[in-house]
């Protein structure tokens, strides 16, 4: 069985910045963390992309605070390219696809409320 491409279960279903047929040289920190969790079989990537994109999962203040500390603080995109974490986010801003997936997994109890240290 081949390794699933994280674009199939993170970027394509969840990331508003994903563009089909555009090769991205870098991945957001959320995607990198989710990919490491999938590699450790913490969740099934084949089922992850089927989760409904539910804004309640990533707008939960407590969950968002945990994800900010454990994922976003070390993300290369946060300072200049992240609308979600900007000082004045647009009203329709969404987090990166990786952060959305992590929030969805946490909200459904598919992963714990803390990202394992080795996956950050």
* Pattern of helices and strands: HHHHHHH
Mean pLDDT: 87
What structural category do the secondary elements indicate? mainly alpha
Distance between the termini: 26 Å
Identify low-pLDDT runs. Answer: none
Which of globular, elongated, flat, extended, rod-shaped describes the shape?
A: globular
**Number of alpha- plus pi-helical segments:** 7
Q: Mind telling me the C-alpha Rg?
A: 13 Å
Provide a descriptive summary of the structure in words.
The structure is a single chain. Helix 1 packs across helix 7 and helix 2 (29-39) crosses helix 7 (97-107). The two termini are 26 Å apart. With 120 residues, the chain is mainly α. It has one domain (6-114). The longest helix is centred in the N-terminal third of the chain and has 11 residues, at 29-39. The protein has helices spanning 6-14, 29-39, 45-48, 55-59, 61-70, 78-81, 97-107.
For the structure shown, list the relevant keywords:
120 residues; single chain; 0% strand; mainly alpha
Fold topology:
Elements (H helix, E strand, L loop, with lengths): L5 H9 L14 H11 L5 H4 L6 H5 L1 H10 L7 H4 L15 H11 L13
């Amino acid at each position: 069985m081949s390794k699933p491409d994280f674009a199939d279960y993170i970027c394509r279903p969840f990331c508003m910045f994903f563009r089909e047929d555009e090769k991205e040289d870098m991945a957001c920190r959320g995607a990198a963390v989710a990919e490491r969790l999938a590699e450790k079989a913490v969740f099934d990537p084949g089922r992850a992309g089927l989760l409904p994109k539910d804004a309640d999962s990533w707008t939960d203040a407590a969950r968002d605070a945990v994800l900010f500390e454990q994922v976003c603080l070390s993300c290369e995109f946060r300072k200049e390219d992240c609308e979600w974490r900007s000082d004045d986010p647009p009203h329709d801003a969404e987090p990166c696809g990786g952060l959305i997936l992590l929030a969805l997994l946490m909200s459904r109890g598919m992963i714990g409320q803390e990202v394992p240290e080795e996956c950050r």
